[in-house]
Structures are given as C-alpha cells and as structure tokens.
Write a structure and sequence with these properties.
The structure holds 2 protein chains of 2 kinds.
Chain A: H1 2-5, H2 11-29, H3 37-48, H4 52-57, H5 59-64, H6 70-89, H7 110-130, H8 137-144, H9 148-168
Helix pairs in contact in A: 8-9
Chain B: H1 3-25, H2 31-38, H3 44-65, H4 78-95, H5 99-107, H6 111-140, H7 149-153, H8 157-177
Helix pairs in contact in B: 1-5, 3-8, 5-6
The chains are: A mainly alpha, B mainly alpha.
C-alpha cells in the first residue's frame, strides 16, 4: 500500500501496468489506448460554437466526428488520474515554468515557455494528425499490435525529437 | 444519449484515470524526464514504452488467438507517417510533453501544459482539419498494403513476437548495465 504514495515507481512496473491496461481496454472497450484524435475533436467542437456549417461540411470532421467519445473521456481521465497520483504523493503544485536541468530560451522565461509550448503543441497536433497517431496510439498501442505504420511513426517521433532537442539544448 | 454510449464514456474515463495515474507515477508527465530522454541522458520514457509494448504484445496476440479481441490498426503511407512523425518529434522536444503526457502534466499542476500546450495541440489539429481536403489525395496515396509485420513477412505472429520480445529485453538489459 505504501507504494501507492511514492512519488516515483519503477519504469518497468509502470510499463507492465500500461501493457495490462491495454489488454483490459481491448477486452472491455474494444479499443486501443490513444489520445491525440481528442485534440482534433476538441478543435471541431470549439469551431462548431461559431461556425457550425463549416464543421459539418469539413471532410475531416465528417471522418472523426467532433463530439465527446470514449477517447475524449480517456484524456479527461488522464488529467484526473495524474491529479490524484500527484496529490497523494505530495507532488501536486501549480507552476508555469517546469523544473529542468537544461535551462534554455525555451524554458527560462515566461514568454519563452509560453511560445515554445504553444508552437510545440501546434506541431504535435498537426504531426499527429498527418501520421494518424501519437506516442500512445502509435508508440504503445500500435507497436504492440506489430503495426508497420506504428513502428515507423514511433521511430520518426524519436528521430525528430532527438534532433530538435540536440539543436535547442 | 443511449445507455451503451454512456457506458462507453464511463469506461473511457476509468481507463484514462488508471493511465494518468501510471504516467504520473512513471514521472513521464515531467518536462525534465522527457527532455532528458530526447537528449539520451535518461531512458525512463523508452523503458516504460518498451515494457508496455512487450507486455501488451504477448497479451494482445494471446487474446486474439482465442478470438476474444480484434486488432485495431492504423494505416498510412511512408510519406504521411515519416513526415508527420518528424513534425511530431519537433513538437515533442519543444513542448516537452506528448499529447497524453501533456494532459497528465496539466493534472499535476503544470500550467504550461494546460494552457499553451493543450491550446497549441488543438490549434495544430484544427489547422490540419482545415487543410485536410487539400492534403487528402496525398494522404490516400501509396498506403501500406500490409498493415502488420507478420503480414509483411508472411509468417505467424509468434515468429515476430519472440525475436522482438527477446530483442527489447536485451536492449533494456544493456541500458541498465550502462546506467542510463
């Protein structure tokens, strides 16, 4: 029980836990763990507020439907699960500039952090749509199903990430 | 809303709560852990992903063999997967979280993930939807004919799973021995 309150678990325990969670997800929900389509659905839901016909005529929103679904609730659950975990370990706290051992213009000032997070998020949103998945949908769920697209995507995520990180830091 | 739909939303929420709890305990909701991984100084992210993949792969193919589940596969082409993946990677390094861990970071109080991070992902996805009609012919072109590695090599899944599981375990042992 004490283990539940610890700030950090062994990465292998966490990984095995996520692996088992994906069995349960396939069995119970008939779905693979994934998150990034939720941001596209949210974009459509927000745009619907002032441009309903634009959204209903858009080919992409016809494909994914801009409404709350299983995965949208999963992303909301991630926020709550992490909130719970950080509250019981005492790690919860509001901060805008994250703690880091790698100070740089992207994380040193409020403006640097604001712009790097906004632009980084924009690239994540666009890239995950073009590749049809993210670190969970492709990187974990797709690779475990031995999907060719997912292995290729996961390798590309890290190649792009490593190159960019070495340029920035 | 039908009962079935409501039930599906509840199942999604519960799955997400466990997922978020595990991501936070694994520390991958921290900016520093993600950046350390991309700078190849700490391999927590890959250790979690690869042990999830090994565990998941064995269970998923076992369940599929007993006809208890169906696979849920994504397609794509070399172009969309690699270009999309590289753009994603650049965003991963700039934001310091990925779409799932950004939600987790927001939950532990990181406002950078909550406001500019999530807003950026929504804007980027919306931009994609906006230009999707233009991109669509390119996206639909040259899609992979085989969806999985066993199909590509025309072998039984177990012949891919065994070497892959052993390879991943060997890689993780090497990482531990190097102290990464």
């Amino acid at each position: 029980m004490q283990y539940l309150y610890r700030a950090q678990w062994s990465p292998y325990i966490v990984g095995i836990g996520i692996g088992i969670l994906s069995w349960i997800s396939f069995l119970v929900s008939k779905k693979a763990l994934g998150t990034s389509t939720t941001y596209a659905r949210t974009a459509g839901m927000l745009e619907k507020l002032f441009n309903e016909t634009g959204v209903s005529n858009n080919q992409y929103y016809q494909k994914i439907t801009a409404e709350i679904n299983w995965q949208w609730m999963l992303v909301l659950g991630i926020v709550l699960g992490s909130l719970f975990s950080s509250l019981i370990s005492g790690e919860f706290g509001f901060r805008f500039i994250p703690e880091t051992d790698f100070p740089s213009f992207v994380n040193y000032t409020v403006w640097g952090r604001f712009l790097s997070a906004l632009f980084g998020g924009l690239l994540l949103g666009f890239g995950s749509r073009l590749a049809s998945g993210c670190t969970s949908g492709h990187g974990i769920s797709g690779t475990m199903q031995l999907s060719i697209a997912s292995w290729l995507a996961a390798i590309s995520f890290f190649v792009g990430g490593i190159i960019t990180a070495f340029i920035i830091f | 809303m039908t009962r079935e739909k409501k039930f599906s939303l509840v199942k999604g929420l519960l799955t997400g709560i466990i997922f978020g709890f595990l991501l936070q305990k694994g520390q991958v909701t921290r900016y520093n852990v993600i950046i350390s991984q991309l700078l190849l100084e700490d391999f927590t992210v890959l250790k979690i992903m690869l042990s999830a993949v090994v565990t998941g792969m064995i269970g998923i193919y076992f369940l599929k063999g007993r006809n208890l589940i169906n696979l849920s596969l994504k397609s794509g082409s070399f172009f969309t997967t690699i270009v999309g993946g590289l753009i994603f990677g650049a965003g991963f390094a700039l934001l310091g979280y990925c779409p799932g861990t950004a939600a987790g970071a927001a939950g532990q109080g990181n406002l950078d993930a909550l406001f500019p991070g999530l807003a950026g992902m929504i804007i980027g996805s919306g931009l994609f939807a906006y230009i999707y009609p233009v991109l669509n012919p390119m996206i639909e072109k040259n899609k992979f004919k085989n969806l999985t590695l066993p199909q590509l090599f025309s072998v039984k899944p177990v012949k891919v799973i065994i070497p892959m599981v052993l390879g991943i375990i060997a890689f993780l042992i090497v990482l531990e021995n190097l102290g990464l």
